[in-house]
Amino acid sequence: MTITSLPSSDGHELTIVIAGRFDFGAHQEFRNAYERVSSTPKSYVIDLKDTTYLDSSALGMLLLLRDHAGGDSAQIRLLNCKPDVRKILAISNFEQLFQIA
Amino acid sequence: MEDEYPVLLDTFVLDSEERLLVLRKAEQAGDAQNLRLAAHSFKGSCSNMGALLLSGLCKQLEEAGRREQLELAPDLLEQIEREFAIVRILLKSERQRYRR
Amino acid sequence: MPERLSILIAEDSAADRMLLSTIVSRQGHRVLTASNGLEALALFEQERPQLVLMDALMPVMDGFEAARRIKQLAGEALVPIIFLTSLSEGEALVRCLEAGGDDFLAKPYNRIILEAKIKAMDRLRRLQDTVLQQRDLIAKHNEHLLNEQRVAKAVFDKVAHSGCLNAPNIRYLQSPYAVFNGDLLLAAYKPSGGMHVLLGDFTGHGLPAAIGAMPLAEVFYGMTAKGYGLTDILRELNAKLRHILPRGVFCCAALLNVSFQRQEVEVWNGGLPDGYLLRRDGPRTALVSRHLPLGVLEPAAFNDSCEVYPLALGDRIFLLSDGVLEACNAQQELFGEARLLQVLDANPAAAQLLYQIQQALHDFSGQQQDDVSLVEVSLVEERQLNRPPLAFADSGQSHLLDWSASFEFRGETLRHFNPLPFLLQLLLEVQGLRPQGGALYTVLAELYSNALEHGVLGLDSQLKQDAEGFAEYYRQRSARLLQLREGYVRFHLQLLPEGGGGRLVITVEDSGKGFDAQALILREMRLDGLSGRGLALIRQLSERCRGSADGQGISVEFSWSPDA
Questions:
Q1: In chain A, residues 49-88 whose CB comes closer than 8 Å to chain C
Q2: Rounded distance, CA C448 to CA C419, Å?
Q3: Whole-structure pTM value
Q4: How far out from the chain centre does Cα A60 lie?
Q5: Domain's final residue, options C131, C146, C171
Q6: Inter-chain contact C16–B44, Cβ cutoff 8 Å?
Q7: DSSP-assigned beta bridge partners for residue C251
Q8: Same domain, yes or no, for C185 and C303?
Q9: Rounded distance between C-alpha atoms, residue C413 and residue C435, angstroms
Q10: Which of C385, C414, C447 is the last residue of a domain?
Q11: Chains contacting A (3 or more CB pairs within 8 Å)
Q12: Residue C105 is part of which domain span?
């Protein structure tokens, strides 16, 4: 599992790319990915194109990011979900909290 | 090693004399096994004292014991005794330098 | 600076022994000497040196034997043995290793090599020491943890299993320590005779996952016992978890409200995999997660809407935790939904279903699963359940016998508030009514839903004739309730002493168009479709049941004798 954090050139958007398994093992790294950035992004993109698996701990981590990004006013998009990942997001009805594409 | 050195020399000489006795007995009894073990031990201490020629002879004797070639033993043993006599003289003179 | 070691030298040649012990003690170590294996062994037992320099060939007992015995005496601690040898044949060196030797030192001795070897062996020895200490520490911690888990589980079992998981219509399968995988299964009889079931799965593992289970169980059992409906319980569970759990921890859950009398099930699924309604004859219906898990949303944003399905005797509801679908085999494949549906397709009998799923899981992954929770609830005749009488925490006030009270619940209130728990609590203060608590609650519940649904909301119970109409009925119910602004439901409660015992008269009226209750009661007693069970039930459970004079309400009576 590797997590890469890419701020946009104007610093308004932060893209976090998660490759491999997104589970409890990613806890610290995922937090670092949005806490240790110099800019204050207005929106976030979680790129899941190389994410092979996602468990309920990962859902918890997404909720933590949502809180960090302003709770109900947070702008977070989850992009490139594979069918398995999408299924887990759907079961938990996370599309009510995140924009999922 | 300054203080212990003369004692070590004495110990080696005494120890070696005993081993020569054991070797001689084993040769006379035709006991290849004991001959080999005693020669092996003697070889080790000789090498430690830097008596390399003596150590080499012991090694030959050990080998003869291992192969049960007892016919080689009397000759080798004699060579060992002769070599030890020389080593002993050298060690005694070395010993003199430390007598105060 | 390396630690001063205590080193045993076993060497039969006096000169070599002296040479070696001089070198070793010059290096700062304490030296013990032996001239054969037996002496070495005795010294080892007595002094427990940390390292041994051992000649291989010695009289009395050779170095091989001595090494073997020393290793035995040393046990788990590493006492390195360096063989001193002028042996050169490979076979002899192998013997040294086999006897437990850790290294060799060839004659003639080299002071520098000897020092380096002693240091290297000392490092190994300390490493082993550290490993042993850590192992013991881990074992201690682990034992401590297991003990804590045992205690926690005992407490948890008391709370969680205070319900009715052992009811004859419930089958479940849960590994003993599932709670430490965050799984939770609760079931409780409602005072009106139905049953609430909850299957939950907290995020995470271990104690953090288990900790939310306690308040969840408390709320679930407490509110169910007081007669609260599923939506009230859901709201409270969500609010409580949202309040106490750290952000990022939540509980995926499915809740069931099974009504045996009305033959319905109400379902709420937030985050659990699809459950299934397995009909005795007919297709299975997926019970899909339509909500965010419990503990995620603010109370104001929480959605408590449930789906209602009609049931027939022998129908079953099957719920599972995601541990089932995510069970892994050696190739890292997941068990998945398709394999589960295969088992369901074979349509195993009630007694077989859970067993067959367990078997399929075992065949697939080759091992016991420890985070799997499965539950199957069947619709049976209520009388098969042998439910225990309602339990009361206090002694009850038998002198509360001569009073009356009237309540009117109006539009806005009817939308959000369920008055039944409140009324039931009040009535069950009367000791003599307690033995009939279940019947009383059922009758109150039926009267209330009749008044609300048919009277205030104007719903037509004829709709419930088939499964499609059934769904339509409940769709209309929530749509109309959402828009409700006016209307009322009134309860008049009258308690009268009677021959040492007493009598309760309940009259329920509503703002509806009114109806000829008397005729309706007679007609509905003959009906046995999806509709009309309600009034028949009221008739059955109460002592007397009649329409009020103005046609706006129904009156029922309960009485009890002094010895009740």
A1: 55-57, 59-61, 63-64, 67, 84
A2: 9
A3: 0.69
A4: 10
A5: C131
A6: yes
A7: C202, C294
A8: yes
A9: 31
A10: C385
A11: C
A12: 6-131
Domains with residue ranges and CATH for chain A: 2-100 (3.30.750.24)
The CATH H-level superfamily of B4-96 is HPT domain (1.20.120.160)
User: What number is the ipTM of this complex?
Assistant: 0.87
**DSSP H or E stretch at residue C159:** helix C111-160
For residue A27, what is the nearest residue in chain C, using CA coordinates? Answer: C248
Query: Which is nearest to C203 in space by CA: A60, B97, A34?
Result: A60
Question: What SS3 class is residue C370?
Answer: coil
User: Side-chain half-sphere of B61: how many Cα atoms within 13 Å?
Assistant: 32
Per-residue pLDDT tens digits of chain C, which is 564 residues long: 457 999 999 998 888 899 899 999 989 999 999 999 999 999 999 999 999 999 988 888 888 899 999 999 999 999 999 998 776 667 778 888 888 899 988 888 888 989 999 999 999 999 999 999 999 999 999 999 888 888 888 887 777 777 888 899 999 988 777 777 788 899 999 988 889 999 999 987 777 777 888 889 989 999 998 889 999 999 999 999 999 998 888 999 999 999 998 889 999 999 999 999 999 888 899 999 999 999 999 999 999 999 999 999 999 999 999 888 888 888 888 898 889 999 988 877 777 889 899 889 889 988 777 778 999 999 998 888 877 776 666 655 556 678 888 999 998 888 888 898 889 888 888 888 888 888 888 889 888 988 898 889 988 878 877 778 888 888 898 899 888 888 999 999 998 888 878 899 999 998 887 655 555 555 554 444 334 556 777 777 788 887 776 667 888 999 888 765
Which residues on A lie below 8 Å from C271 (Cβ)? 91-93
CATH number at residue C369: 3.60.40.10
- Could you tell me which chain A residue has the CA closest to the CA of C290? A93
Spatial distance between the Cα atoms of C78 and C49, rounded to a whole number of angstroms: 11
